[in-house]
Task: structure prediction
Amino acid sequence: MTIHTMTPRRALTAVGNETVKGLRHGWSERLQILIEMPLFIIFVLLLGYTTGKGDTIAATGALDWSIDTSHASWLIIGMVVFIYTYLHVQKMFWRFLAEIQTGTLEQTYLSPLPSWVHVVAGRIAAAIAETAVVAGVVYAVTSLFVRIDLHWRPAALVPLALLITGAAGLAMIIAGITLVWKRIQLLNDLILMLIFFFSGAALPLADMPSWAQDIGKPIFMTHATEAIRIVMVDGDALAWAGTGGWAWTLATATGWFLAGLTIFHFCERIALRRGSLSRF
Result:
């Protein structure tokens, strides 16, 4: 038997193959993506028209069906961040589950690359590609109803990269749990719903109870969202400390990635011992 050593060229080839596979999966689901886009648009517009207007509704008994520019700009950042996280985790879960069911996941262990690289690599490229399309359409349609004022600055790319890192950690956590318990879609949806609420994607953290703010502090999406808002909505530079500061954004993204790596390896060992990589 010939044992092939891992060289940089072979590593790039393996990662490239996973990336191409992820993009092919995304292209095969283009109809589903087209169906999802109107749902995201309706969701964003409904949030824009209703969130933060509780006092007005209580005082007048009516809803003012208008959105101001500052609120729309603030909200669109939170929703784009959540859409990326949602698509990354959901697509990873369903495609990972399909590979387990069809038995193709076992091919991962024929590669000299670590198994977690296969889980992360292709899914990230596919999630970025799908999110770019969905977020672009959501932004374009929302801008037809209200003016969105954003500062398009390169400084936003760093918290965006940290968002992708944190989301990859969450995806590995879900992948590891899927290896052991398989059909966990309800748990998956619950985790995403809680992250959406406690991260301040749609509601300002300052308006939440103190216990909700404490829950949101260790969530990677909380600080990535706030950091991107500071740069693109407020037009300011990021501070070192505080919500959305460099320290919290870097620490939470790194922490979630390392936690995902640890949990995935732990669950993977359980699945290997059970011999359940390709059966339910």
